[in-house]
Design brief:
Layout (H helix, E strand, L loop, with lengths): L1 H9 L1 H10 L1 H4 L5 H6 L3 H9 L17 E5 L5 E4 L3 E2 L7 E2 L8 E4 L5 H4 L1 E5 L5 E6 L9 E4 L4 E5 L19
Antiparallel strand pairs: 1-2, 1-9, 3-4, 4-8, 5-6, 6-7, 7-8
Length: 173
């Protein structure tokens, strides 16, 4: 059974599909040090030092354009505007990640109930924000993110910027 699964996993069509759907999440070939040098002071403090930007004074808290949000350092796809909602906190909030494997969590033990779990990007280890269990259904989660840790890719630019695999979710019905 295990060998069959591994055989299927290595099937070139499956691997090709995985690479197409999440090329940025699987692709670790970015120069982290060089990218970090290009960050603004607030982007650096948030992604590298774990700071939070001020509420209501950040780029995406009230952005409702269709598109995806990616890690500012690695380009990993993180969140979709389809899952964004107004939590009235002053930070962009989402019900779930676009690709769950692109985010990792860090617990603070007893303080987790108060501060939420820390959320970081997988490849760049950028601090993104926190996740709380007070969000809307169906997930019940609120991913409260820092705008400074993300770049927004509008729907119209997804293909041009290399994120074409995510364009279908914004099809005009």
């Amino acid at each position: 059974m295990r060998n069959e699964f591994i055989g299927e996993l290595l099937d070139s069509r499956l691997v090709s599909k995985m690479n197409t759907c999440s090329a940025h999440s699987l692709n670790g070939d970015f120069d982290k040090e060089e990218k970090i040098k290009s960050l603004t002071k607030i982007q650096y403090n948030v992604t590298q030092k774990g700071a939070d930007e001020p509420p209501f004074h950040n780029e995406y808290w009230d952005n409702y354009e269709e598109g995806i949000y990616v890690d500012i350092v690695s380009g990993e796809p993180l969140f979709s505007s389809k899952d964004k909602y107004d939590a009235h906190t002053g930070w962009p909030s989402f019900t779930k990640p676009l690709i769950s494997n692109n985010v990792v969590f860090k617990s603070y033990g007893l303080f987790t109930a108060i501060t939420g779990m820390e959320v970081r990007s997988r490849n760049a280890n950028s601090f993104l924000g926190h996740v709380f269990n007070d969000g809307p259904q169906p997930t019940g989660q609120r991913y409260c993110m820092n705008s400074a840790s993300m770049a927004f890719i509008p729907k119209a630019d997804l293909v041009r910027r290399g994120y074409g695999a995510y364009a279908a979710q914004f099809s005009d019905d």
